[in-house]
Amino acid sequence: MTVTADVPAPADYPAGQLDSPVLPRASDTEWRPPAAGRPLPPRADPFFRAPSGFATQDPGTVLRSRPVELALLGVIPQQVTAWQLLYRSSDLHGNPEVAVTTVLLPRGATPNAERPLLAFGTAIDAVTDRCAPSYALRRGALSPGSITQLEWFLVANALRRGWSVSIADHEGPHGNFGAAREPGYRTLDGMRAALRFAPLGLRADTKIAVWGYSGGGMASSWAIEMAPGYAPELNIVGAVLGAPVGDPREVFLRLDGGLFTGFPAIVIAALARVYPAMAEVVDRDFTDQGRRVLDQVRTLGPIAALPWLVGSRVEDYLRRPLHEVLPELEDMFDDIRLGGTAPACPVLVVQPVHDQVIDVAGIDGQVERYRAAGAAVWYIRDRLSEHFSLLPLATPLSLDWLADRIAGKTLTEPTTKTIWSVALRPELWRGLVEMATTAMRVTLGRPLTPESEQVTAEAPELAA
To answer: Who has the most CB within 10 Å: 59, 156, 204, 219?
Structure first.
């Protein structure tokens, strides 16, 4: 078979000009410089096109690669070494599809077979491809309303520890936010691609940690639920899930008509593309105005969509009451509910008790389903934090817990603890200070120098 190959740039070609390459055909013998300007969004970038014959390759096979330059908010260049990998993966129905992950090393890091890999699930939470991490993290990207761009502050803390990182476009080429299983396929195949990508220097048995929050926690949940059956060869040693959605149906109904109605609207716009029942509801029951709203949210990042739709209700855009429509969507909601399969790795779940976006009861249910299926889950419920504050506050705890799993430290019996705040634990304050230092380095575009020794806080007393 033929897979489109990349032709390397001449050694003297300016590295900063590699951001928007003109992809060669398999028959090309001469590399051609890219057009100057901003990177192309995925729908217009030839790099994302599936090469001929890709479907015959094994899942996770690297089909194409290129170096890229990352920048905070698309503006401040970051001192990391980054590539994008196009690889073979699958869609909702298991049909072959291409996917992309952005893989990272600290700038100046040399290949190290002992280096762990972090699979970070970012909260894309959008249909538009401008919010995909492969675009939003690049220098010159225009991604208004992107959450992923802000999460870079957190990913940088893993790079400071000397870890390699994989950030998959887990919603796929069409932005299927909320779909079942697809995020698992793309995240796990992204791990496979990273392990096979020689410049990272990783091995088949490299220790892998998984981390995600909110929409990223949902994607990471699918990855660890599917790993035992779909990718059992991957050495996933632990996962941290922050506010991982649990039951999307309950979140959908809870947010309707409030400050965060934009999230249900984005989910409807996304799922209408992959679930026939939702597509039928949109075609038959949505008003013309309602369909225009869905068309608009397909173009917006979540931070941009939320203020626009504050206080609106889904029923405002329907021709009949919502309670008459919901029964037709129950099979879809059952399909996208998390917790149906037990992860094989240890799992830490962190959740605000008073989360204004994701009700703690939904996460209680996800944890209960995991445990009933035999999973080992440590669960922390935080009384004082809310949805948006817990992510940064729990970052030191999350990374320390994953570092302990990478180091092979023994865990105590799984527990559920309801605490006042992760930020009130003195043993985690050092991590918060280091996170502030990392944020300063990111903001100034300074090197993310890996620590010479990974000294973790005594998180087990809190989380294990």
So the answer is: 219
Contact 182, 169 (CB under 8 A): no
Burial (CB count <10 Å: 0-12, 13-18, 19+), residue 250? middle
- Residue 264 is encoded by which pair of tokens? 């249900």
DSSP 138: B
More confident residue, 462 or 420: 420
Look at the chain and count its residues.
Answer: 464
Question: Taking the CB of residue 283, how many other CB atoms lie within 10 A of it?
Answer: 10
CA torsion through residues 442, 447, 450, 452, sign: negative
Rounded average pLDDT over 236-250: 97
Q: Global pTM?
A: 0.89
- How far CA 21 is from CA of 77, 345, 384, 459, in Å, comes to 19, 39, 48, 45
The bridge status of strand 208-213 relative to strand 117-121 is parallel
Range 158-177 average pLDDT = 96
**In this structure, are residues 463 and 432 in contact, taking their beta carbons and an 8 Å threshold?**
no
**CA pair distance 331, 357, nearest whole angstrom:** 23
In the predicted model, is pLDDT for residue 331 greater than 50?
A: yes
Sign of CA dihedral 84, 182, 136, 247: negative
